[in-house]
Design a protein that fits this description.
Layout lengths: L2 H6 L1 H24 L2 H23 L6 H6 L7 H19 L1 H22 L11 H17 L5
Helix pairs in contact: 2-3, 2-5, 3-5, 5-6, 6-7
Organism: Roseovarius albus
Pfam families: DMT_YdcZ (PF04657)
GO cellular component, one term: plasma membrane
Length: about 150
């Protein structure tokens, strides 16, 4: 593998490591705010502020209205999914714990990702699902089940 490509894998690993930290922070903020909706608003407000600072610093080109109109309707739903995910972390982390919650999230991702890959959905190039991808997805789902044995 090209060393530059190998180095790129550090970014998703770091993102993955930050997800349970982010989820725990969201759960704590939810308790402090008294309701997941207020905590979600606060969290996204901070995100919005960070984005404004980033735009002011990097000064990316403003998108044209025609390019925004050209985006398919489903592309605009990402923000809704973000709200659902953040609220789920706030409500479910205290009930399930970070490890079980994140394992279930990863299992859900691993169940959906091969479907997206196989069919080239969401604007990606199709990537055939083979034995190794199916096995990896199944192992993720089995991992969630194994983590639940202590509760049985």
């Amino acid at each position: 593998m090209d060393p530059k490509i190998a180095l790129l894998w550090f970014a998703p690993l770091l993102c993955g490591a930050l997800i349970p930290i982010h989820a725990g922070m969201n759960a704590k903020l939810s308790r402090a705010a008294g309701h997941p909706l207020w905590a979600t608003l606060l969290s996204f407000g901070i995100s919005f502020f960070c984005l404004v600072v980033g735009i002011a610093w990097l000064r990316p080109t403003l998108p044209s209205l025609s390019s925004l109109y050209a985006a398919p309707p489903w592309a605009w739903v990402g923000g809704v999914i973000g709200v659902i995910y953040v609220m789920a972390t706030m409500v479910l982390i205290p009930r399930f714990g970070a490890a079980a919650f994140i394992a279930a999230v990863v299992a859900g991702q691993m169940a959906m990702a091969p479907i997206l890959d196989q069919n080239g959905l969401l604007g990606t190039a199709p990537r055939p699902v083979d034995f190794f991808r199916i096995t990896g997805a199944m192992l993720s789902i089995i991992g969630v089940l194994v983590m639940q044995f202590e509760k049985a």
